[in-house]
Request: fold
Amino acid sequence: MSRKRFWISALVIGVVGVVAYLPGLKVGFFNGWWYLEWVSSMDLPRYLTQFFDPANVTQGYRPAQGLFVLFQYTLFHFNSDGWLLTQLLLHAANSVLLFAIVGRIGKNWRLALIAALVYVVSPVFSLAVFWHAVVDPLSAFFYLLTILLWTKYLETRRGRDWALTFGAFVFALFSKEIAVFLPFFLFLIEWWLFETPLDLARLARQYAPFLLMLIPFVLLDLNVQSHGEFVGQFGFKIGPQMLGNLFPYLAVLTLPVFVEKPVDAVYYVWMAAAVLVYLGIMLYKKSAALLFLGIFAILNIAPLLGFPLEYFNTRYLYTSMMASAVIIALVVEQGFKFFGKRRLYMLVAGAAIALVVLGSSLRVADAAAGLAEYTRELRVPFHDIALQHPHFPADTFLYFVYPKTSVTELEGLFYTRYFGEGVSVDGTDSGRIADLRRHNTAFVYYFDPTGRSIEIPVDQNDTTRATPPLPARFQVPISLDGYETPSSAVQRGKALVVILNWSTPSQPGQDYSVSANLVDANGNVISRYDGQPKRGAAPTSTWRRGMVVVDAIVLPVSADAPLGDNARLEIGLHDHAAAQPIPVIDQNGQSLGDKVVIGPFSIVK
Reply:
């Protein structure tokens, strides 16, 4: 292919990819907020330490990602469009690199163009492009660049090309762990695809530096993983279950139209048939290229297979999907070989490729729209509050009671919106004690049945008291250690919010429910609640010794509730099955009644 045609083809691939994935700009930031917080709050030495010092790393050892995040923040700060456009451009560049690699190795630029066009619009890994915190587009860039430079070195045998290859490999290795397989693939490319005779002395000179770089990296990353999130939080485990975990990924690779885990048996039947046909053709033709593609696809998802399938996500196939794109292109190319240059086949093949590009682009747009709607819904409470409060006073604390949006999400949204204003965020799902009055200004937010957030300013002077004094021990191994309420004045039409801090000296062993009654001075019930802690999300039978359970209760107060002072809140504990009240006891085990009373509260207009 001439240089001019190469660059025209590359431009077409890039433009198609940019246009297909451009709807992703509607998504905005979601999750991965810690990168934005680190890069904006740390000075440069501390930030570099966060990514380069293995003791600070909790995921994979990926300092190149840290540098890339710094680069993006320097250019875009908190403009999500800039961050997502960078991901999009990286994806387009990766597709061009795939085009260049397939064309250089296969000496068939039509095949390379088809493979690149199929890959660049694939909806399978759309989340990897839409999500600013995902490293796959960056790691794939250095991964593919290493392979491309290696093919050039195999043609020129110049030391400069070898050095450039090695440099790209280092960046790939420091971007994501799957780069540990690169030296093996480079060897297979030289031996199988370039059919270079083996020469032990030359192989030692070429590959020894790669291995010398690889061995300490593997040891370092194993050390990181030993105390990191993958093993501790996600339950990574090497074992025979990895083979079963492979099947859903293979189902997607053999029928690359999914953006979620395939569940119907018919897809796995198709997968088995496709794999058998693939193996049969590979063995019949003794095709090293087909064997290479199969190994490439599987090895690049091998590290995922140790995770439980509940963490399945097609975005992890970002690199492996390149093998599927090449195989699809090979099928089309076989048609060209069989039918020659017959006009009908060329028209049909061209129309089929155009339909694939168009259909995949529509799937990408649909995935972007779905994700944008998801993030829009997550941002509803944030937008309502941001409109009401263009600015907050310094040292403001916002506490959310059972939000639909995770506290992590809310923390990120408020952090980027009120950056530099000293606004901090927490909520019930974090499990941390609220401590509402440790800041100068605080607000509690709960949500009405329509999902609208209701704001309660925190009164710094809490006049309520608990009787008996807390901590209050129950006759079962459960203790009410403390409570917090934003204000002793409860407005009609809103709700009383009380945050209870429970603990257990030993495992309770069975389920108990919490009752809460707001009563007026005459003992008439204004509002009541009864249910297991954290709205059933933390049954006491699951509690463990030393746990602190933060349980928020929302008691709606009707618009016609009687006004007055000296209302009180009665908190009790009872057997969940039998509704038998559990006594509160003193240090000697003597009963103090069956409730903890908190008050006084005032019902106001």
Observations:
- The chain has a mean pLDDT of 94.
